[in-house]
Amino acid sequence: MPQSVIQIKDLHVAFGDNYVLRGVDLDLYKGENLVVLGRSGTGKSVLIKMLVGLLKPDSGSVTVLNEDVMALDSIELDKLRLKVGFSFQNSALYDSMTVRENLEFPLVRNVRNLTRSEIDRQVEEALDNVGLKQAINQVPSELSGGQRKRIGIARTLILKPEIMLYDEPTAGLDPITCTEINSLINEVQERNGASSIIITHDLTCAKTVGDRVAMLFDGQFQRMGTFDEVFATDDERVQQFYHYNFTESK
Amino acid sequence: MNPPSPTTERPLLSKRLDDILLSLYNVFTFIGRFFREVVLPPYEGREIIRQCYEVGVRSLPLISLTGFITGIVFTNQSRPSLSQFGATSWLPSLVSIALVRAIGPLVTSLIAAGRVGSNIGAELSSMRVTEQIDAMEVSATNPFKFLVVSRVLATTFMIPVLTMYAIAVGLLGSFLNVSSSEATSLQSFISEVFNTITFLDIFSSVIKSVVFGFTIGMVGCYQGYNSSKGTEGVGKAANASVVTSMFLVFVEELLALQIVGAIRDM
Ligand SMILES: Nc1ncnc2c1ncn2[C@@H]1O[C@H](COP(=O)(O)OP(=O)(O)OP(=O)(O)O)[C@@H](O)[C@H]1O
Ligand SMILES: [Mg+2]
């Protein structure tokens, strides 16, 4: 049995009358890429926000790297957050800072005693990984949506987290950039030994990077397994996902 | 972490009163957190200096203009009443007392509330809306320290400086007006001013503007940091920052009047 780095048990979340998650169970195993699929508004983003303590569940337990996230005080939570990278759906770049400052921001505040040249080297390396070295002195408003997304991923990767949470990393990107992001995700898995949760609507991405796929319906993971296992069903809702990606678009 | 939001179920008292008490609680927790984080390391020195620069330099042109014009207008409007008693030579004293005790701090703070307070409210709430504050949190950095502490310190330091500057510019405007009709020399104008103003005047003016500055920064940050999601939250936060801080500045001015009056009578 592989070691699990994230354990979610019977998680319930509601916003007023909107019952979003209704008994979610999930394990993320060390070193695997887990793809989470689900329609818009099913609570995928909410789910991964629970993992880093940005939102609190109504009931259920979340264990990340053997720590009960809900029981941590703010110092312990920060320690945990250092090991978990979170790439936001909307990139969430700091508008008032250049790309370089965006990447430096987590680095200089969390890694002590870095020399200037060491900082520069790490920033350039992180940008190189997402193919955007030339954007280093630009501000976010000068970048395209896809470029922003990649900078957001680079900013998350700069701390070399053990766990990566990608919220729709390829949404709105052209096919070539998508392929690059997919290989980046695989590279992060191989090189850093990171375990990742990747939220996506893009089945090509799911197929390329996902060791396992989990599908969220009605507030629960109703299908889980390898890509082929998940789609080997007559369930209408699952098939619609598949056909949109692989029939109509091709 | 977001503060507790107004409850939707089972109000303890009336719903309205519950919400008011809850927001009071949130305000005091926010202020308490400021005082805790301002003393604890790490310190965001560079960001504090950058914010001081923003507050100071951004408001400078507007405050120069308003201070100068206020000095001229106030002098000009006071002249007829004084000349009825043949006392136009008292103009420098009258104007300096008014500028130092009340007009300088008030005008500066009201302008800063409009210029700086709304800016802080809008900036922080748009960072909240676009999840930039969440992004700082998940990267194990402290957004409160970086965003709120630096801004509140900046307004608390810079509004008194701007106030002194506004008073100086106002006196200059006043001198130009006085010298054009009363033929006073700059030297005698200055000595007139300094004979009138007491240490208590200047001291209370500085303390008052420190409080005004703190209020403006705090209100803007509170509104922005806790703004509701969505773009309309940005406009609301900017607006509420201005309205609330202007209102509080006037309330504080009234309180200061009582306190300083009591000290003077001692
Ligand atoms: N802070 C919040 N307050 C109230 N409701 C929220 C909040 N965050 C999310 N929700 C609600 O939770 C539901 C799930 O939102 P979530 O962002 O997780 O969807 P998603 O699965 O990520 O969708 P998408 O694929 O469009 O990103 C939505 O109905 C949303 O309205
Ligand atoms: Mg989402």
TrEMBL record, chain A:
Keyword list, A-Z: ATP-binding, Nucleotide-binding, Transport
Domain ABC transporter: 6-243
Gene3D superfamilies reported for this sequence: P-loop containing nucleotide triphosphate hydrolases
SUPFAM superfamilies: P-loop containing nucleoside triphosphate hydrolases
A Pfam family of this chain: ABC_tran
PROSITE patterns cross-referenced by the UniProt entry: ABC_TRANSPORTER_1, ABC_TRANSPORTER_2
GO molecular function, one term: ATP binding
Signal peptide as annotated in the record: none
UniProt protein name: ATP-binding cassette domain-containing protein
Biological source species: Fibrella forsythiae
From TrEMBL, chain B:
Keyword NAD included in the entry's annotation: no
Subcellular location(s) per record: Membrane
Pfam families registered for this protein in UniProt: MlaE
Source domain of life: Bacteria
Bilayer topology term: Multi-pass membrane protein
InterPro entries hit by this protein: ABC_MlaE_roteobac, Permease_MalE
Similarity-based family: Belongs to the MlaE permease family.
Protein name per the record: ABC transporter permease
Species of provenance: Fibrella forsythiae
Lineage: Bacteria, Pseudomonadati, Bacteroidota, Cytophagia, Cytophagales
